[in-house]
Amino acid sequence: MKNASRRMFLKSGAICGLASWLGGRPAGAVSASGGETPAAQDRATPLIHVTDLFHPHGDPDDHFDLACVYALALRRRLDLRGVVIDYPPSFRAGDPAVVAVAQMNHISGLAVPISIGTSRKLASRTDALPDAPRRDTAAVRFLIEQLRASDGPIALACVGSAADIVVAALREPALFRDKCSGVYLNSGSAHDNPAKPAQLEFNVRLDPAAYAAMFDLPCPLYWFPCWNVTEVRQSGGSGSFYWLPHREALAEISNSAANFFAYMFSKSTEPKWLRAMSSPPPAEPWEKILAAARGMWSTASLLAAAGLAVTRDGDIVPAGEADDAAVFRLIPVEATCTDDGKTTWQRAAEPVAVSDGSRTTAPRWMLSVTDVPRYPEAMTRAVNTLLKTFE
After folding, report:
1. Domain 6-387 falls in which CATH fold?
2. What is the pTM of this model?
3. φ, ψ dihedrals at 320, nearest 5°
């Protein structure tokens, strides 16, 4: 370690609001032809991170995602406006990991606010929780207030529950159309598992109606299916999953960053969570951490929101400069989702908007892994680069 239903294809002027949809999305997103736009990003992307982050952890990938978001903020690729933490499902041992956000704030020197999500499961894809008490809509109101107060569009990264984003959009659809540059959704599967065709991805199972409603949003949706094939734990052409070896990902990170992960992995009850950030973690438990590996799902979406891509060699570069060297990119798709969370999609020749006669959704994009064999190693190196940001 070191201390360091009717489709409308988008033609010129065909749909009101197209300029705000395309002009508001982060630089480096795909162009109409499906390739990355060449424009360089001239400012950090404003972003709110929505996550199922708990302590004790439910899955350590969420802490890796949080650290990557903060690293991108320190690198001035993201302007981190807030972290929304899901209300924990009853089967989770931990509560929202506000300590993890506080630790990251301390390590980074940032002062990012936190809001806790709703405990309600949506009754339908149009359920705006009209009767929910204020404590159950705090994150909904936070999202709305942040969008309303922002001078420019804000991106939303959803690596946990979709409920708070959906309810905010249902309550303020015009605000989302005008001020949300895109939702980066990490849920679902690109393909059903033939052995278990009825099986749904974990986040979808938690709230199928909320997941389905994501495909009704009036703002751009960037869909990163967690699985190429549901619950098949290997990288594939349309799934974000990859294996992250800890030894490679955590190599040469600072003492403060190492302690952030050691506190989480040990499920520590140490009340001195701030003062635990200064000295190296104990050698024996840290070696056990380094010997493990971790399933990861959300790294590509966070980099894409920041206008970045990863090359086959694991270098992080502006998306417009990656050309054919990138291990992933975004492609335009037509995508729909049934009320029970089953998604259907097909590739589109250009970005597509969908209208049901009463409302029009913005275009949809989807992850495409362009070099499946190189993807895990390249993403691992990218994560290590980000984690070495912290001093």
Report:
1. Inosine-uridine Nucleoside N-ribohydrolase; Chain A (3.90.245)
2. 0.89
3. -70, -15
